[in-house]
Design brief:
Rossmann fold; 3 domains; 9 strands; 16 helices
Length: about 375
């Protein structure tokens, strides 16, 4: 299996097949290596629509020509001449790593207004850079889809456990004790492997997932250095390590993390903000139904993927059997969808109903 079916497949396909004129531009966001490009390419192929795909990170000459365009008409003519794209022909146009262009963000609003019959999708891990300081966000002209790592049901499909995936999605209950134990065993494996498609496939083939994860993390660091320089590279590494090591602990322990050795709290906060913008770190603002529930606590942060967490963590992440005992008894939480604390008690784990766990550290 080279492509793992995703829950978002149908949504992307519906967007591509939608013949409504002047439809919005689709922005597909998410961390690197979560499968954004494969998702869009798979949907385009399934649609059978004539399409053009451009990777602006690799096709540097075309990116330079796009950045030289001052008007949308120039941009439209450039695509006609260089790749044969006809905005009146009902074609699909896919820009991968779109944020690498300094100009294309200015043209997004016109893609909807002037290309009445085109289907346009932009993809990237840092699409916040797409609309730079001198470019207004095109409100009402874009749709956003945020893709994360594989969900557990998607992992099961990759592991040839389609029937179990269907049972989970259909919310079949109650499970027999045997099926429950089998699912817990598979969930342990899922938490250990994480949800990055390439890592999952490598693990299922019996390969070295640790080496692949190390390479992916090195690529994340190089992305940061390429954009912001080497000055904060060590802070980036320390932010990753500290979040991994302190995930699930109290905010007091969060505050005594290894990044504290660096001078300049503003620099640390700036790095965290950028990593959150890249969807590599998830921020959870602790809230609850009462005023006393969240006022005493700072935000908590989690890594976007449990496999990355396990790779980085210097102390072992407990297995699911231990995690089942860690959920605090928090009778003050009336809305279990809220991540955080209730009744003044700090919480890292929130459970919805019987057996449906929602854990911000692992559910990404």
């Amino acid at each position: 299996m080279n492509y793992i079916p995703r829950l978002a497949d149908k949504e992307i396909l519906r967007f591509i097949e939608d013949k409504q004129p002047n439809k919005s531009v689709l922005l597909v966001e998410g961390a690197r290596q979560v499968g954004k490009s494969f998702l869009v390419a798979h949907a385009i192929q399934a649609s059978g629509k004539q399409s053009f795909s451009l990777n602006l990170e690799k096709e540097t000459r075309l990116r330079s020509l796009i950045d030289d365009c001052r008007e949308f008409k120039e941009f439209d003519q450039l695509l006609r001449d260089r790749i044969g794209f006809d905005s009146t022909g009902g074609q699909a146009l896919f820009f991968d790593q779109a944020q690498e262009s300094s100009r294309i963000g200015q043209f997004v609003r016109f893609m909807k207004e002037d290309w009445a019959h085109a289907t346009v999708m932009l993809c990237g891990s840092t699409l916040s850079r797409l609309f730079r300081q001198d470019t207004r966000y095109p409100v009402g002209r874009v749709r956003r889809l945020l893709l994360g790592p594989l969900a557990f049901s998607e992992f099961l499909i990759a592991a040839d456990q389609d029937r179990l995936a269907e049972a989970i999605r259909a919310d079949e209950s109650p499970f027999t004790p045997q099926r429950h134990d089998h699912l817990l065993s598979l969930y342990d494996r899922f938490l250990l492997t994480g949800g990055l498609p390439a890592v999952v496939l490598e693990s299922l083939r019996g390969g070295d997932r640790s080496e692949l994860l190390a390479q992916i993390l090195a690529d994340y660091e190089q992305d940061f250095i390429r954009l912001f320089g080497e000055a904060d590279a060590e802070i980036v590494r320390a932010c990753f390590r500290s979040v991994a090591n302190f995930v699930g602990r109290s905010i007091q322990e969060h505050h005594r993390c290894s990044v504290a050795e660096f001078a300049g709290q503003w620099r640390i906060n700036e790095v965290f903000d950028r990593l959150e913008g890249w969807h590599l770190i998830l921020r959870s603002d602790q809230k609850g139904p009462g005023a006393e529930a969240g006022h005493a606590y700072l935000p908590k942060r989690y890594l976007f993927d449990s496999g990355v967490l396990r790779h980085l963590r210097e102390v072992a992440v407990p297995s699911i059997h231990i995690l089942e005992t860690l959920a605090p008894e928090n009778k003050g939480v009336e809305d279990p969808s809220v991540s955080g604390a209730g009744g003044g008690c700090e919480s890292a784990f929130v459970f919805r109903g019987c057996g449906h766990a929602r854990n911000p550290a692992l559910a990404a």
